[in-house]
Amino acid sequence: MATCPNAECTKTIKIFAFFMCEVLHFFNLIGSPKGPTQKMNLFQSITSALDNTLASDPTAVIFGEDVAFGGVFRCTVGLRDKYGKDRVFNTPLCEQGIVGFGIGVAVAGATAIAEIQFADYIFPAFDQIVNEAAKYRYRSGNLFDCGNLTIRAPWGCVGHGALYHSQSPEAFFAHCPGLKIVIPRGPIQAKGLLLSCIADKNPCIFFEPKILYRAAVEQVPEEPYTIPLSQAEILQEGSDVTLVSWGTQIHVLKEVASMAQEKLGVSCEVIDLQTILPWDIETVCKSVVKTGRLLISHEAPVTGGFAAEISSTVQEECFLNLEAPISRVCGYDTPFPHIFEPFYTPDKWKCFEAIKKMINY
């Protein structure tokens, strides 16, 4: 078969192939889409999920800093005008108050969707999330709960966000039983997983990769649908190395898998964890038993990052199947830099070198 010498042509073919793979994965999860679909990027798919929720649940309310006019990333644009200022409204600049109010709303039986403007600013609400929301059901002996609480927050690096706008704090909350933590990789997943979080009867934290808000467009159903939580997705099957990540880093690992196949003849299995807590141990371990090698990559610092939990569990469960030490390719143990942020993030070249090291071990 003749090859196209045009680089742009090749790039277009790859993008189209990736899009078709995403559509097929989506169909496998929920079957044929019901009703019309619409081209949406990630932030628009989140708006669609919130719109569906407000339309179907008269108790649902959305609140946070600047959400009334659409929010910094426009995820709630138009919702106040459509549903009224009593259901979509601004709060004071107080994250502890936002989450505390959300707990109260959820305990009273309503559906609370709280927005923290950046994941970096979730820490003032840490006590409310960890000591109140996560433990409410347990300390009351299941007499009361705040399971109708979903906390949304833009998450991850953008290439220039520096120390206060690029953090990935999922590991802090993964240490806390009683929460569910979810991170999507694209528009289709964002809507389905967010609707699952809103419907789930446990408090959920939904981190949204901010660099992906406008990065890709997919055909997303206008009607509501859900994608199961705590279920990882195998995006590409392989036989030599298992690659695990979530959110933005999944797109890096898919590119790395193509590089490894082309340059090394190495077959990589790519897994999107999707839910950080409770995570899908079975899918990851089953893959590692097959491949004998595991690379985990995330943007957060390596020490104490969630890759360490995955590595520890796989080592315990799959020790006799491992052909090489488990590799973690993550951020450095420093605050996020500004102009050096591209050097800080675990790019495809760092991951590719880790694969070569594992194969040659």
UniProtKB/TrEMBL annotation:
Its EC number is 1.2.4.4. It is an enzyme of class 1 (oxidoreductase). Pfam families: Transket_pyr (PF02779), Transketolase_C (PF02780). The keyword Metal-binding does not apply. Keywords: Mitochondrion, Oxidoreductase, Transit peptide. It is found in: Mitochondrion matrix. Residues 40-215 form the Transketolase-like pyrimidine-binding domain. Its main location: mitochondrion. Its cofactor is thiamine diphosphate. It catalyses: N(6)-[(R)-lipoyl]-L-lysyl-[protein] + 3-methyl-2-oxobutanoate + H(+) = N(6)-[(R)-S(8)-2-methylpropanoyldihydrolipoyl]-L-lysyl-[protein] + CO2. GO terms for biological process: branched-chain amino acid catabolic process; response to nutrient. It comes from the Eukaryota. SMART domains: Transket_pyr (SM00861). The keyword Amino-acid biosynthesis does not apply. CDD domains: TPP_PYR_E1-PDHc-beta_like. GO terms for molecular function: branched-chain 2-oxo acid dehydrogenase activity. Gene3D superfamilies: 3.40.50.920, 3.40.50.970. Together with BCKDHA forms the heterotetrameric E1 subunit of the mitochondrial branched-chain alpha-ketoacid dehydrogenase (BCKD) complex. The BCKD complex catalyzes the multi-step oxidative decarboxylation of alpha-ketoacids derived from the branched-chain amino-acids valine, leucine and isoleucine producing CO2 and acyl-CoA which is subsequently utilized to produce energy. The E1 subunit catalyzes the first step with the decarboxylation of the alpha-ketoacid forming an enzyme-product intermediate. Heterotetramer of 2 alpha/BCKDHA and 2 beta chains/BCKDHB that forms the branched-chain alpha-keto acid decarboxylase (E1) component of the BCKD complex. The branched-chain alpha-ketoacid dehydrogenase is a large complex composed of three major building blocks E1, E2 and E3. It is organized around E2, a 24-meric cubic core composed of DBT, to which are associated 6 to 12 copies of E1, and approximately 6 copies of the dehydrogenase E3, a DLD dimer. This is 2-oxoisovalerate dehydrogenase subunit beta, mitochondrial.
